Amino acid sequence: MHPCRVLFICTGNSARSILSEATLNHLGKGRFEAYSAGSKPTGQVNPHALEALATAGIPTHGLSSKSWDRFVGEDAPPLDIVVTVCDSAASEPCPVLFGDFVRTHWGLPDPAAATGSPVAIHAAFRQAHRLITQRLMALLDLPVETMRAEPLKRALDGIGALTAADDESAA
User: Fold this and answer.
1) Phi, psi (degrees; rounded to nearest 5) at 67
2) At 36, which helix (H) or strand (E)?
3) Locate the Phosphotyrosine protein phosphatase I domain: which residues (predicted)?
4) 3-state secondary structure of 40
5) Rounded Cα gap, residues 15 and 80, in angstroms
6) Average pLDDT score, the chain
7) Gap between the Cα atoms of 130 and 40, Å rounded
8) What's the whole-model pTM score?
9) Residue 23: partners with Cβ closer than 8 Å, 6 or more residues away
10) Domains and their CATH numbers in the chain
């Protein structure tokens, strides 16, 4: 059985999808292989995202902002799950990728859009990474290797419904 291959997509591929890719690769060693991409990549990883990962002890080597174009066509790695992480509540357009995989949406505010003091920006990235980690821990609890597409889709959609409030009430 190959690792479950997960692609995280957002618009810029500089923060949320990068945080998701690196964290799942770190936590899901062997079981999961994570990637990230953007519909309009910025071309660079947000330094605050790299700082959040480093603070959590998660390797950042090799992370890059890239187009989703590399995940279509004959040379693309086969995917099992595609997760959009844009914030549809903020009317941010979510990219759509077509293929034979399970799709889900785990919307969350873009910490790269945070403004204010360095402390406020750091807090936005910390909060985003905490929610991403919470959702990824729920993913790791799923028996993805034996799940059919429909039950997996329902479970993934349920994970996407987890909010920061859920995280804080569990703390």
Assistant:
1) -80, 150
2) strand 32-38
3) 4-142
4) coil
5) 22
6) 89
7) 25
8) 0.90
9) 53, 56, 58, 129, 132, 133, 136
10) 4-170 (3.40.50.2300)
Rounded (10°) CA dihedral 134, 137, 141, 143: 110
Contacts of 18 (CB under 8 A, 6+ apart): 36, 45, 46, 49, 53, 63, 65
Answer for the pair 104, 81: CB distance below 8 angstroms, yes or no. yes
Question: What does the radius of gyration of the chain's CA atoms come to, in whole angstroms?
Answer: 15
In sequence order, the β-bridge partners of residue 38 are 10, 67
In this structure, the chain runs to a length of 171
* pLDDT confidence of residue 169: 46
> Alpha helices, DSSP H only, in 35-117?
47-55
pLDDT band at 164 (very low <50, low <70, confident <90, very high): low
- H/E segment holding residue 104: strand 102-105
- Dihedral sign for Cα 65, 101, 59, 125, please: positive
Q: Is residue 40 within 8 Å of residue 10, measured between CB atoms?
A: no
Distances 29 to 23, 39, 93, 114, 124 between C-alpha atoms, Å: 10, 27, 31, 31, 27
**H/E stretch holding 7:** strand 4-10
